[in-house]
Amino acid sequence: MDIFKLNNLYKLTKTSSRVAFAGSSVLFTGAVASQDGSNFEVEEVIVTAQKREQNLQDVPISITAITEESLSKLNIKNFADYVLQLPSVSSYQRRPGMGQIFMRGVSDGGNQNQSLTGPSVAIYVDDAPVTAIGDNLDVHIYDIDRIEVLTGPQGTLYGAASQAGNLRIITKKPINEFDAGANMGIESTSGGSGSNLLEGFVNIPLSQNSAIRLVGYRDKDGGYIDSVQDSITYPLSGITKTSANFVESDFNESVVEGYKAALRVNLSDSWTFDANLMSQQTETDGVWDHNPTALGDYNVSRFFDDSTDDDWSKFTATITGDLGFADLTFTTSTLDRDLEYLTDYSAYAAYSAYVEAYYTCYAYYYGDNCIDPSIQYENDTNQEIETREIRLTSKNQSKLNWIIGSFYTENTLDYNTQWRIPGILDALKVPLSVENYYQTDQVRVDEETALFGELYYQLTDQLKLTLGYRRFENETSLKGFVGTVFWPSYIGGTNRADNVNSRFSGKDSVSKFNLSYDINETTLVYLTLSEGYRPGGANRTTEVGATYDSDFLESTEIGLKTTLMDGRFRFNGAIYQQDWNDIQLAFFDPNISLLGLVDNLGQAESNGFEFDSRYIINDKATISVGYSSNDAELKENYFYRGTLRVAAGQDLPLTPDVKYNINLDYEVNENSFGQINYTFTDEMFNSDVFLGTREIQDSYSIVNASWTLVRGNKQLQFYVNNLTDETAELGRNYEDYVDLITVNRPRSIGIKFSWLLDK
Q1: Is the pTM of this model over 0.85?
Q2: Torsion angle in degrees (nearest 10) through CA of 265, 266, 270, 273
Q3: Between 20 and 30 A from 290 (CA), which of 50, 101, 254, 384?
């Protein structure tokens, strides 16, 4: 058995070394031409990826860190902005606040159904998980210290949902001095409406040992999609529905408002208490899709209102202290989220004849007077996540160091999804509903308890061994109602009994092996074998089994971290081979009562390499390059009801073969500097994994540029996002039973004024 999968890694090494060398040699050419004897060094970046403070270059795993300075220069303010800059990360987001994230090709296409599979990538804010099933939080990026991205399985330290990786948003903490700052910006979008931004913070010392940090923001993004007039004719009734009442220019507007209050108290020289309250509300109107084939670029037709109201708050408290032999950290966190959205679902009634046949044109009830079968979909979801973690971390004072801990989380989803037909007869409505012909009203509870630890042993001055282990227990319950008046209720019924009550429980473990070697003071190589997992769960029907099993990711990775040329050039790279076993596949079968299902598909393989580099050309110019190449495909056929639905050899969805970015910073002097950023994302299949409905999303390139003038503690930034006015296909879906393409914002020109007291 090739436990280290060295044959596959050898093939990858030959290819990746050629690409990495080519990328490096371009930078080295610039270095030779620009050397003037000056002493410049790439800045040191401190990360907490392994739950202790470490220099990025000393951590023997693959990490990308976007610092506060880079976040500001790149004008990053949300999920879509930072994902664009992460080569090993792909995503799917139909509208703000509804994003899903994937790493290194580990993608099942995602889903937005809360009854189905969980995500393969965890999202953390500081030390607290905020991962959601279907729709991750879109945290506004302001007063953020850095974003850390850990690619590859992080199962031992972070557990469930960190199967393929982990994304951590690290907020700024209170400091013991008075400080304040603010940003104000306006933006104009080609062919769209204007946008504006207001952000501010104040840091106030309360005593010698305590301080509070207050943050507030409001970000309005104007629309650029037009809702145009169109019509739809339903086949059975012949009724024609027009969108005349919903015609509107630039109708996809979003407004994000929020605040943060952080408290830090130094209880003694060695004990600290931190508390953090964050709250954010996102309101949107319209959709971020267009229908270019039928209606033209940036045009779509809708027959009902589309809107989102996403309101969440998170409280986290952490106490850290010195026990002498180790440092203690205890964190407790609560997330409360209310998400409501409305979506036009009218095309489904034209696609599926049974809506008219049974609910709007049933001759027994309507005679010859059919009613309009147009449908509006509503989702009302409340999510509560309770998390506790306690851990001990050794002092780094000997050859043997360690971290051990205990983790508990409970994620409760109470969701009510409704398919409404205005005017539907009482006898055909779901009992106890207003206008629903179909409804899901359920509560899902996911619990995890785990013990974890990692052991670090310095075998020699240059060779270090890491062993990690996590033992976990999971339990998922799903209870409530799903169905129509025909199933499971009877026509004319007055009661609506729960008809779903399923449960899954399981226990297992994952492990990690890492061997790192310091070639010299500035160069590190490592080998990692690691595992990640997603817990199993319960189905709402026994069509493919009452439960589905956990799926596991096994990864072998070889990496290099080096700083060369007296600190002017930093290069970090890795090659990897991943086996994804018992893949959880979520899908929808309209033949069995409109229920979403989950089945274990089989095996997939993901091979690739990635690197990021930074080179200081001279005292004025710095260039950064990030690159990822990935080949992810299924290894087994999947048959459903005797039909081949997924074929061995097909690419996994939402996985570009190549993704990279190039960033050039140029400083005229300390009062004037500019930046140009280029990103490329290769073509990929859309989110559907089934044969017959898969579509290619085209490749795209985005160019952003900015110039900043500095005067003391004030800055004025002029920027252009999407300089070439590229129309990027961010997603392609048939979720509303129309071929729609989610697109980026057209060229936008803006000005942002920044003021900082402590400058």
Answers
A1: yes
A2: 0
A3: 101
